[in-house]
Amino acid sequence: MLMPKRVKYRKIQKGRVRGKACRGNTIAFGDYGLQSLECAWIKSQQIEAARIAISRHVQRIGKLWIRIFPHRSFTKKPAETRMGKGKGTPEGWVAVIQAGTIMFELSGPPHDEAMRALTLAAAKLPVDCRIVTRQEME
Predict the structure, then answer these.
(1) Domains of the chain
(2) Are 10 and 95 in contact (CB under 8 A)?
(3) What is the pTM of this model?
């Protein structure tokens, strides 16, 4: 699972995710990309599941780049706990993404194989996605 080596603060306020991405919204490394169409938190387990889906489908042909990283911790209080008594304990790590963020990039496999692999990865993620190519972005 992806997680930071160390952080300055264990618990972070929730905040709000709005707007469109102005950074990380173009294909920088590969030929195909998986772009989010909405804002969300993506857990490290979901990133890992999408990575496994892509690498298994293309059978490690070509190269895969993961463009998002879960820097933010999220907390959870135990079940059947009364209100109050402070914030819950850190439960896991999430990547905060905005609409338009390129999450995964892929290069190497043929066009139809890459499209199928990224479609399988999109099914593992909690956001609507679209597959973009380098030619579309230019």
Answers:
(1) 39-75+92-137 (3.90.1170.10)
(2) no
(3) 0.93
